[in-house]
Write a structure and sequence with these properties.
heterodimer, A: alpha+beta, Rossmann fold, OB fold (Dihydrolipoamide Acetyltransferase, E2P), 9 helices, 20 strands, elongated, B: mainly alpha, MetI-like fold, two-stranded antiparallel sheet, 14 helices, 2 strands, globular, ABC-type transporter activity (chain A), ABC_transporter-like_CS (chain A), ATP binding (chain A)
């Protein structure tokens, strides 16, 4: 084992009956690291978390914590604590009893439990609520009690199963920062399951994007955002505008062939691994620059330029979002000012913000299911989520 | 009707009043159907002399109460027997229903529906032939005429309520509540004892009350297996009623009615809709 790895998941497979949810998954997590498992529903992220916690039996592979194989250990002997999406607070116990339960299990004297519970209540802003029942608390307070109950036992690893998804949007933003600040302060290793991209970006040191039981990509928030490794990751990270392009690749640059709606251009390869042929190009609505159709052309080497027609514009706040038709395709582009409906426009996408992937014919991808289906039905405002 | 709708219907106020007439009649009939026989029963308990064609008793008094509760009258013995048997039946039924209900609610058991259905079988056949045969069998192994024998008969009868309601009660406790305890260090048994069991307790209490009331009212099994060595309240009621002694029969009936009404109020409070919706699933 290389030093630094604290939680090692090796070759983990799991499933219900014949359906495999996890496929020989490997993941190493360092001590004190905050890892977010990000993916759409059914990608296996929750199963992975439950397997680590001991609630789902893996069919193969192992889970190793600090050199100790815990794969066959029951959940209560793994030194972990889990925070559930439903909070799972015990309604027959008070807030204080909920938080102190883990300490009671350890057989600590009552005064010591009371002191530790008091500390946690203070740390989590629950002071004075200790004798209330969970039913008498707000959603945010319940969430903090659930967190306090998990933190009380000083777990080696904190497992968070979408703990914020039942909170109001406004509280959620604050709690994100509270949890990651607390995790950093206590130095706990945390594994956080979420389907919320922004939540993962804000909270995690490392994001693990999962797709169909495998890891699609992992890296720092900046890496997965700016250098998606596959069309799936690009789409999941918000690059939902998609175009078909073709071109030739040489050692340092990719030459995009002129098409019906674009001129020939030469883009620096910039670390991409591409083969000549058909490309799937993806970019975010905010990555492109919108210009009127008669604006002077920019330097051809640095950006892809497309021509299209404005179909609709809306104002989601801050910027104007335009729906633009380019040949058969429809894309969303942001601009600081509105462009008239029906007007001809040019769209300029800087090379570093254009994600290029070989399409399936050139480069076989076994897990090609992605957000393709959802693309048809998306509305102007939906690309933000 | 929502409060917002009231101002609208206020204008043609007399129509609203007219609607109360059929409602009042229906409610009155229902009340009469329920409370009429009860009033009759209450009157009989305090009637000293009452015969046809008089609508009301001719003399009132409590002399029959004294007779029922006198050491010579066997009401006290029957009451003690009934309560003892009912309590033991609850203990036996719950001892089986708690593990069975937990397993049926939590584990992915094969033939789960068949197992749940099996508990219905004692109710599916006519009581009389079943209990006659049980009595014969119990006679051979010396269980006839013993408290244990009657408890066993009542338990087979009560298990369907106990197991079905206990299964629903455990199913209504989210598995995550138990897992939350497991994840912070509670062993399986401890998590069950300190989290699942207390949370399922109201439903289990309701099932206990059902079993208790069933046992208290049960006649056929008590008659064939218990009598004449173990006498129960329904048997006393039967004997008194058959002998034309309506005062004693009514007083016995009232004794049976009190726990029923009292416990139904408790059940109504504890058997929440989340448990009820899971009965039989």
């Amino acid at each position: 084992m290389d030093n630094g790895t604290f939680l090692r998941i090796a070759g983990l497979s799991a499933g219900y009956g014949a359906t495999r949810v996890l496929e020989r998954l490997d993941l190493d997590i360092r001590k004190g690291e905050f890892v977010a498992l990000l993916g759409s529903s059914g990608c296996g992220k929750t199963t992975l978390l439950r397997a680590v916690a001991g609630f789902a039996k893996p069919s193969a592979g192992s889970i190793i914590v600090a050199g100790r194989d815990v794969t066959r250990l029951p959940p209560d002997r793994r030194g972990m604590a889990m925070v559930f999406q439903s909070y799972a607070l015990w309604s027959h116990m008070t807030v204080g009893q909920n938080i102190g339960y883990g300490l009671k299990l350890k057989g600590l004297p009552r005064t010591e439990i009371a002191q530790r519970v008091g500390e946690l209540e203070e740390m989590l802003g629950l002071t004075g609520l200790g004798s209330r029942k969970p039913a008498a608390l707000s959603g945010g307070q319940r969430q903090r009690v659930a967190l306090g109950r998990a933190l009380a036992i000083n777990p080696q690893i904190l497992l968070l199963d979408e703990p914020l998804s039942n909170l109001d949007a406004r509280i959620r933003l604050k709690v994100r920062h509270d949890i990651s600040a607390l995790q950093k302060r206590l130095g706990i290793t945390a594994v956080h399951v979420t389907h919320d991209r922004e939540e993962a970006m804000v909270m995690a040191d490392r994001i693990v994007i999962m797709d169909a039981g495998r890891i699609a990509q992992q890296g720092t928030p900046e890496e997965v955002y700016n250098r998606p490794a596959s069309p799936f990751v690009a789409a999941f990270m918000g690059a939902e505008n998609v175009l078909e392009l073709s071109g030739n690749v040489d050692a340092s640059a990719v030459a995009i062939k002129a098409g019906a709606n674009n001129h020939r251009c030469l883009l620096p390869l910039g670390g991409r691994t591409l083969e000549s042929g058909m490309f799937e190009a993806r970019f975010r609505a905010e990555a492109a620059e919108l210009m009127t159709g008669d604006a002077p052309a920019g330097a051809p080497g640095q950006a892809l330029e497309l021509s299209g027609r404005v179909e609709a514009a809306s104002y989601p706040g801050g910027i104007w979002r335009h729906s633009i038709r380019i040949g058969e395709a429809q894309i969303l582009v942001d601009a600081p000012r509105p462009f008239e409906h029906g007007s001809a426009v040019r769209i300029r996408i800087p090379a570093e913000k254009l994600f290029l992937f070989n399409t399936r014919s050139a480069h076989e991808r076994p897990h090609a299911h992605s957000l393709h289906d959802g693309r048809k039905g998306r509305v102007l405002e939906a690309s933000e989520t | 009707m929502s409060t917002a709708a009231i101002p609208e219907t206020n204008a043609p106020g007399f129509r609203l009043d007219l609607w109360w007439i059929p409602r009042a009649i229906v409610l009155g009939l229902i009340a009469f159907a329920i409370f009429g026989p009860l009033t009759n029963l209450l009157l009989w308990t305090v009637a000293e002399k009452w015969y046809f064609p008089h609508t009301l008793p001719l003399e009132y008094g409590f002399s029959y109460w004294g007779r029922v509760f006198s050491p010579r009258g066997n009401a006290m013995e029957s009451l003690t027997n009934s309560i003892l048997v009912a309590s033991l039946t609850v203990v036996v039924s719950l001892a089986l229903a708690i593990p069975a209900g937990y397993a049926l609610a939590r584990l992915r058991l094969p033939f789960r529906a068949a197992i749940l259905f099996a508990f219905l079988i004692p109710q599916a056949f006519p009581n009389l032939p079943v209990y006659v045969n049980i009595a014969r069998l119990f006679y051979e192994i010396g269980l006839n005429g013993t408290i244990a024998g009657v408890v066993l008969v009542h338990a087979t009868h009560g298990l369907v309520y106990a197991v079905w309601i206990a299964t629903a009660a455990f199913a209504a406790v989210d598995a995550e509540l138990e897992q939350a305890a497991r994840s912070i260090g509670a062993g399986a048994l401890r998590a069950f004892r300190e989290v699942t069991l207390p949370l399922a307790a109201p439903g289990l209490l309701a099932s206990a009350i059902f079993v208790f009331l069933e046992s208290l009212d049960e006649f056929t099994g008590s008659y064939f297996v218990g009598a004449p060595d173990v006498n129960m309240l329904p048997l006393l009621l039967y004997t008194a009623g058959a002998g034309g002694n309506y005062q004693v029969a009514s007083i016995t009936a009232l004794l049976l009615l009190i726990p029923s009404v009292g416990f139904m109020l408790v059940v109504e409070r504890f058997l929440k809709s989340d448990v009820l919706s899971k009965v039989g699933h």
